[in-house]
């Protein structure tokens, strides 16, 4: 069984009047895994997947 070491996501910004505007939410990396590029990778993956989804 694996261990979750990082988590994050994105949703439509409820305060913007544009469904194309998102808000990155709840990004967290376990302390012992920080400063290893995992958070940066996670943010980049969230942005990549969001851009790909919005183009459909």
Walk me through what this model shows:
- By secondary structure, the chain is α+β, with helices and mostly antiparallel strands.
- It has one domain (6-54).
- It contains 1 helix and 2 strands.
- It has one helix at residues 38-54; strands spanning 6-12, 22-29.
- It has a two-stranded antiparallel sheet.
- The termini are far apart.
Structural class: alpha+beta
Task: State the oligomer.
Answer: single chain
The number of distinct helices, counting runs of at least 4 residues, comes to 1
Largest sheet: 2 strands, antiparallel
Organism: Priestia megaterium (Bacillus megaterium)
Keywords: Transferase
InterPro entries: Acyl_CoA_acyltransferase, GNAT_dom
Pfam family, one: Acetyltransf_7
Summarize the structure.
The protein is α+β, with helices and mostly antiparallel strands. The chain has one helix at 38-54; strands at 6-12, 22-29. It is elongated.
Describe the protein's topology.
Elements: E1 6-12, E2 22-29, H1 38-54
Antiparallel strand pairs: 1-2
Protein name: GNAT family N-acetyltransferase
Keywords: Transferase
Domain N-acetyltransferase: 5-48
Observed structural traits:
56 residues; alpha+beta; two-stranded antiparallel sheet; 2 strands; elongated
């Amino acid at each position: 069984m694996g261990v979750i070491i990082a988590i994050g996501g994105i949703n439509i910004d409820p305060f913007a009047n544009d469904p194309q505007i998102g808000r990155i939410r709840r990004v967290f990396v376990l302390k012992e895994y920080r400063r290893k590029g995992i958070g940066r990778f996670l943010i980049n993956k969230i942005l990549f997947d969001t851009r790909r989804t919005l183009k459909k």
